[in-house]
Design a protein that fits this description.
- With 300 residues, the protein is of the alpha/beta class.
- The protein has two domains: 130 residues, Nucleoside Triphosphate Pyrophosphohydrolase; 159 residues, Phosphoglycerate mutase-like (Rossmann fold), CATH 3.40.50.1240.
- 28% of the residues lie in helices and 32% in strands.
- It contains nine helices and 13 strands.
- Strands 1, 2, 3, 4, 5, 6 and 7 form a seven-stranded mixed β-sheet that branches. The protein has a six-stranded mixed β-sheet with strand order 10-9-11-8-12-13, with helices on both faces.
- Strand 2 and strand 3 form a beta hairpin.
- Helix 5 packs across helix 6.
- The radius of gyration is 20 Å and the shape is globular.
Length: 300
């Protein structure tokens, strides 16, 4: 018997500062079809990045544009006998306004401790429990492995000059809207052509300069690992969202050391496939530390 395909969905806990800055409020939407209150969410389209899908669903159901933050977990259940997974992120509202539709006819802003009482205990409730201003106010920093660049052994020139192949070009273009969604404002790359090309589509669209980071290449790290770590930590502590692109052999030791330096648990697998990325969510209160670290295996 054929295994039923998993339905992938995503959503977000949309939040804003409460009036008078007394904590935060989160948005719930009312679905007339089910006559229930829910966190905004919906099914991903084919090939859609889950964070982009979550942002799309939040905007469609609430009318609000948002910035993605730390992951808030996922739920699993059967939808008409088919397994379904819904992943959630904290999402700070940055603009927009609600308009009723056939799918969603009402929206309310509530303190988190009140909002969870309106949600189904077996579904969205556990996503909101524990949400507060300290847990959702984070700043993202992304570490990306360069996109596909063919076979190292088949390249006869200087390896630093090996360019992206056709698949890699597509991966770089697909990465651009993800970086835009995280509102990346600083772009850094190892001084290796394929790393720079991986970030080029986003940088060009955002009118940002790709800043060269020799220490973050395989050669630079091998020669001066302590300085490379110091440089990466400095980049991640910048007050704005940033992205760093490096190489496959360099990322694992750098991620491991960075987690140790910024107070996070080291991931079980610190490697990345080509075009994969880690998103480090740095807390906004107190000294910079990693509140969450999530991994996305690849763009395409």
């Amino acid at each position: 018997m054929a295994r039923k395909k998993l339905i992938e969905a995503a959503g977000g806990v949309l939040w804003r500062s409460a009036p008078g800055h007394a904590g935060i409020e989160v948005a719930l939407v009312h679905r007339p079809k089910y006559d229930d209150w829910s966190i905004p969410k919906g099914k991903l389209t084919s090939g859609e990045h889950p964070v982009l899908g979550a942002l799309r669903e939040v905007e469609e159901e609430t009318g609000h544009i948002a910035e993605p933050g730390r992951p808030l977990g996922e739920i699993h259940y059967l939808k008409e006998g088919v397994p379904k997974r819904v992943r959630y992120w904290a999402m700070r509202a940055t603009g927009g306004s609600f308009a009723a539709s056939e799918e969603v006819d009402r929206m309310v802003w509530l303190p988190p401790q009140e909002a969870w009482q309106h949600l189904l205990p077996e579904r969205d409730r556990k996503i909101v429990v524990g949400v507060d201003q300290d847990s959702v106010a984070t700043r993202p920093c992304l570490i990306v492995r360069h996109a596909s660049a063919g076979d190292r052994s088949a390249w006869t020139g200087d390896d630093r000059d090996r360019p992206l192949d056709a698949l890699g070009d597509g991966q770089a273009r697909a990465l651009a809207p993800v970086l835009a969604a995280y509102h990346v404002q600083r772009v850094h790359s190892a001084d290796v052509l394929r790393c720079q090309q991986t970030l080029a589509p986003f940088a060009e669209a955002a009118r940002l300069t790709v800043q060269s980071e020799p220490l973050l290449s395989e050669t630079g790290y091998a020669q001066q690992p302590e300085l490379a770590l110091e440089r990466l930590v400095t980049l991640l502590k910048a007050p704005v969202p940033s992205v760093v692109c490096s190489q496959g052999r360099t990322i694992p030791p750098l991620v491991t050391a960075t987690c140790a330096a910024l107070g996070a648990e080291v991931p079980a697998d610190p490697t990345l496939p080509k075009a994969g990325m880690f998103v480090l969510h740095l807390t906004m209160t107190g000294p910079p530390c990693i509140g969450d670290l999530e991994r996305f295996d690849r763009i395409l």
